[in-house]
Amino acid sequence: MEDFHEELFSCQKTPGLFCFLSMFSCIGGPCCVQGKVVSDYTQKSCLYHCALPCLCLCIGASINRQVLRQQLGMDKVFIKDCVLHMFCNVCAVNQEFLEAHRHRLQGNVNMLNLKNSTATNKRSFTPNAPVDLIV
């Protein structure tokens, strides 16, 4: 099994997302972004995955991260993820966003709700990840 390819402190790759997550972290910005990323891999709604970290804080965010890890074929490390979301939630959500985007661009996963990666979603609040993620 593997772990995240994206580094935890890779916020410079998506400065707009980092600013959004930082500015709106007190009113659920990271919860919404994480909910959208995880819901793209499951049949549950974005609202469900957004409510988990909003209501259960780092435990809910860790549950979402476990779902993402499972869908991307990674080892599950709940305690590590819980501590990570407790102390560095913005960086963890940014890492999840970048990793999901990397897998989508590489075509490694079959995502349920996402359209073609070149299409832009004008209704989404989540910015496009940089294209140079493919190594």
Structure notes:
Pfam families: PLAC8. This protein is mainly α and about 140 residues long. It has a domain at about 30-110. It is built from five helices and no strands. Helix 2 (about 30-40) runs parallel beside helix 5, helix 3 (about 45-70) crosses helix 5 (about 90-105) and helix 4 packs across helix 5. It starts with 14 loop residues before the first helix and ends in a 29-residue tail after the last helix.
Mean pLDDT value? 84
Q: Specify the structural class.
A: mainly alpha
* Series of secondary-structure elements, N-terminal to C-terminal: HHHHH
Shape: globular
Helical fraction equals 55-70%
The main sheet comes to: none
InterPro entries: PLAC_motif_containing (IPR006461)
Pfam families: PLAC8
Summarize this structure as a short list of keywords or feature phrases.
5 helices, 135 residues, mainly alpha, 0% strand
Give a concise summary.
InterPro entries: PLAC_motif_containing (IPR006461). The chain contains five helices and no strands. It has 135 residues and is mostly helical.
What's the topology here?
Blueprint: H1 15-23, H2 29-39, H3 46-72, H4 78-87, H5 89-106
InterPro entries: PLAC_motif_containing
